[in-house]
Sequence to fold (334 residues):
Amino acid sequence: MSARPRTPWVAVACVAVLAAAGCGQGGVRASGTTPSPSGASVAPADSAPDTPASPSPSSPSSAPASVARVGPEEFRAALAAVDAQIAPGMAAVEAAGTPQALASAFTDAARRAGAARTALAAVTPPEAAEAGARTLTAALSGLEKDLDGLSGSARSGRLCTGASGIPRASNLPGAQAVRDAAAALAAVDGAYRVGSFVPERQDEPGRRGANGSLGGGRRGGPGELTVKNADGAGDAVVELTKGDTIVRELYVRAGATVTVDGIPDGKLTAYYTTGTDWDPDGKRFSRDCRFQRFDETLDFETKGSQYMAYTLTLYAVAGGNASKTDVSADQFPS
Fold:
């Protein structure tokens, strides 16, 4: 005889944005002299000079000093410094495995693009490269703003890992502007190379796992677990854990039902995540990710020939009796 509880799923998400502004004011004081009735200026009685005042010399107008142009070799070094400044930030974007890490990496990459722009703007390039340098400076400014915008997408969970962060970054207007500026500079001098930090344009992936167990975990009991995602809006991955140990990990596509057996006895906790584009290496959805945990444990117990068989339903069910809690990506077992 098996007990088969049914469980509901209800998703709740909330984002709050606050803005503040300040203002200030200042004042100006004016002073003047009062003319005499005859129109002549009147000096105080005790201030008559013994010697005539000499006119003060006027300050000569100074023309702006000309800024010395750097030579081709120095300009090549300035371009290499741009790459060296931004490349570590983009590498961190690619390596990010959670939305929090991805948001931080995008913010850092944006800061690095801004610092590289400032440093390049302080360089007066060879005359032939002047137009290309201005174009590159403007492109870096655009890239800085674009990367900062992607940081917000990561914080909201629309982008979750570098597996989608890099393809999204590769299609930024700022990224294309850097490519165009690099091509213009290379046309002036083939040794003027810059922009190696910009990923090649690529489509965002849309990978999906196969229904069933993802492998690994523990076996050793007669317990069964069924996961229904029949009305689900997206694919899901369920993690069944005992403490810090993953007992079973299974992929359930939207509209599918998956059953696994061999569940060992014990009080187990069920987590699940939903999203788009399953990264099998990072074992995370790379876009539109959410992470949740069922509040009640699943008590698998074997008594003679009797064992427990639980059903988790990843959508609302009338009469369901299980609650869930949102968790952060860092709390999700992997």
Remarks:
- The first strand starts at residue 212 and ends at 213.
- The chain is about 30% helix and 20% strand.
- Residues 1-65 have pLDDT under 50 and may be disordered.
- The longest helix spans residues 130-155.
